[in-house]
Amino acid sequence: MKKLVFVSALLFSVLTLFLSTNFASAAPTSFARWASATQTILVSSYSSNYSAWSTGATKWKNSTNFKVSTIVGSHSSNYYAYDVYDSNVDWDGIAKTTHGNGVITKSVLNFNTYHTSKSNYTASIKAGLAGHEIGHSLGLNHVSVVEIPTNSIMYPYTFKSNGSPARALSPTSADITVVNNLYKKSIGSILSTSKEDGIYLTPSWSVYYEDEIALEKDADLVVRAKVIDYLGSHMDKNKVQPYTTKHILEIQDVIKGDIKEEKIVISQMGGSDGVTNVFGEHTTLLTVNDEIIVFLKESEDGSYRPINEDDGIYLYKDYEGEFVNIRNNEGFSSFEYKAR
Ligand SMILES: [Zn+2]
């Protein structure tokens, strides 16, 4: 019996409490803006979630300078929303936003009905999710995962793992201030943006896992592994999540799950085809020779995905002698690992 030593569970709670206390008033940052503050989102006539998008837009329109409304239509535009169904991803909603020089030129918003058709997605949860995605589409980043969840509609998770709602369902005063600064009445000089030009995938995760024990419970497979090969980025425009990067993992130890293969393929969001750069907002791409412990779900094509992208990957750090969450300043901490 192999076992993880979850020293992190306690560490994580302490860390969360500490950081929450210090960053309680943190507001979301912005990455870009539309040239005009008046926008219309076209919602596909095939969508069964028009009222969620409409209510989500109204939340911003009524509280900020960003005057966004919705109409139903059958043609795509530069700002549109439609439903997708994908059981192979952990996100319930996503925004794909294209920007250059700080100006947003296109945003496509999706609900993933694999998640949102479940009974825990009530009308108010869905309107909150729509408001969250519209927040991305107007130029907002997520708040940190160590933020107090209800301080911002831009918290990345919909539910806690105990099933209760995680994020604010309407823009909070912190959100409103940021948006009003972004969309001042006179549109001045273009923002300087800290982000590279490209397409940004900003997912909303259905579930927040409070620690590694919760991650392990939901994982199909937990392994210690080494990244041995890069399989490249794949752009399949017909897929719901069209941009992925794949690596081969050599399994060194199986912590949970039943697997005969010694090598598996891991798939992460985003990548580059040499022309377009696509960034997963919650994704740090692996590199060859990385040694990791990874909490995985199996997808239908036989590849594996880390749960909630960065949430599920722990990278071995020599100098610390332990596995540290790949996005190590973002809430999830590190843990000791002992084989057998
Ligand atoms: Zn999001």
TrEMBL record:
It comes from the Bacteria. This is Matrixin family metalloprotease. Keywords: Hydrolase, Metal-binding, Metalloprotease, Protease, Signal, Zinc. Residues 1-26 form the signal peptide. InterPro entries: MetalloPept_cat_dom_sf (IPR024079), Pept_M10_metallopeptidase (IPR001818). Residues 128-183 form the Peptidase M10 metallopeptidase domain. Its EC number is 3.4.24.-. One of its GO terms (molecular function) is metallopeptidase activity.
